[in-house]
TrEMBL record:
This is MazG-like protein.
Amino acid sequence: MNSKLPQDNHIDFSAAAERAMRVRRFYRQLEKQNHKTVWTTEEDMLAFVSDVGLLARLVMAAEGRWVQGENLQAELGSKMAECLWWLLVLSERLNMDITKEFTSFMDKLDTDLGAKP
């Protein structure tokens, strides 16, 4: 099975979630080696929240309100992708179909805002 995502910049959330969990399994191996146990879902959530905080600082830097190094765009993109990765991992760990939930949420917004044709 090819684990790479399509190069046309369109993401299939189901394929992305599978890939996210494959990578997460490698981290679990490291956790077992280093800590003898794997992280709980709560610990995954704390890691996600920590990354969201770092993303917030990068957004502030992008808006000129925080001093950041010269690779801001690369760091911003990487941290956004990491946050998306955590959301995919958490959705899988909580047995949620993120594609279904996202579609349902967007449909509701479209309806609520009168944006749906």
